[in-house]
Design goal:
- Two copies of one chain form a homodimer.
- By secondary structure, chain A is of the alpha/beta class.
- Chain A is built from five helices and eleven strands.
- An eight-stranded mixed β-sheet of chain A has the order 6-7-5-4-8-9-10-11, sandwiched between helices. In chain A, strands 1-2 form a two-stranded antiparallel ribbon.
- In chain A, helix 3 links the parallel strand 4 and strand 5.
- In chain A, helix 2 packs across helix 3.
- The radius of gyration of chain A is 16 Å and the shape is globular.
- The termini of chain A are close together.
- Chains A and B meet through strand 3, helix 2, helix 3 and strand 5 of A and strand 3, helix 2, helix 3 and strand 5 of B.
- Strand 5 of chain A pairs antiparallel with strand 3 of chain B.
């Protein structure tokens, strides 16, 4: 998506080897006009897939998911990061291992809002090692929902998550795929 | 807002003395068609106030804020709940005291995204004791931004936050004001 790549080139900041700071427009301040274009692009790629629900994870996926849902005319469910590892049987639970932060956290979704009748599009702002996505897929497996695919705003294609998940058969559509980046050279896109 | 009150009556669940569970449409599963109507209503109330930025707090305010921002044609900034009380001088910090959870947490916003040039509408899903709103007001005071007012989806008017903040001069527009509620009697609205 050219508009998005241009924005990343102009306003993204590379920090160290693997941090791409885009909080001026994506995940702290949010440029809603850009989100509308992102939503249209996701719709173009996943229209006619029968999506009846969008699943994302708090907090920074929520904005893109809500704007995009307007095009699909469907509700959004966001998975919550749980502080307490409570074994509440009204919830689906998944563990999300973060290599980056060296933590394991629990994400939860109420059983009331996902089930076998759902045809789900997963949306998130970033894909790197794929931990969050694996957590959401685990929850959808528990729910017996169909997974249409995953829509990602920025994929760090030099980290293994996207390639692995595609090999496993998941349809992953990333609007900008970063092939490599550095503080000096900036961002190089994969396509 | 009649549509919202009807939805609360139909799908809200009162738990104990002061929990109103609306996670089937507001803060876990999100009914985006309803959010669009909520956004239009906020726009009606705050149009012509020169709003150039919307401020909310993660996670459950983000959806309503993003959908509403489309009508104001402005970006959204969301305050982040910080785990670490780090004294990063690139951030505005505020303490949010939660009576409900008996906790004090830190919320932060980057100094890059709020300043004296901003005319800010605060949006949030709930107003009860007003702690989150006070934290956001503190951040806006530090930033030197103008505060247009606060738009709230559901105000628990039997808790003191809204009345206190209005007495202090803040314009608070709540789309549904709950006067009282109980598991047996359901929800009674203030107007």
């Amino acid at each position: 998506m050219e508009l998005l790549k241009r924005r990343i080139r102009e306003d993204g900041q590379v920090k160290g080897a693997d941090v791409l700071k885009v909080d001026s427009f994506l995940n702290h301040q949010m440029d809603i006009a850009l989100f509308v274009e992102i939503g249209k692009e996701f719709y173009k790629r996943f229209a006619h897939c029968g999506v009846n629900k969008i699943l994302t994870i708090e907090a920074s996926g929520i904005g893109v998911a809500c704007i995009t849902a307007q095009f699909f005319h469907c509700p959004v469910v966001f998975a919550k990061k749980s502080k307490t590892s409570n074994l509440d049987d009204r919830l689906y639970h998944a563990k999300v291992v973060s290599f980056t932060h060296a933590t394991v956290s629990d994400v939860v979704v109420s059983r009331d809002y996902l089930g076998p009748q759902d045809n789900v599009l997963i949306l998130d702002d970033f894909l790197a090692n794929g931990e969050a996505l694996r957590g959401l897929l685990d929850i959808l497996r528990q729910a017996g929902s169909q997974v249409v695919g995953a829509g990602i705003v920025i994929e760090k294609a030099f980290q293994p998550g996207g390639a692995q998940l595609r090999r496993e058969g998941l349809r992953v559509e990333s609007l900008a795929r970063v092939a490599s980046m550095s503080e000096e050279g900036g961002v190089v896109f994969a396509d």
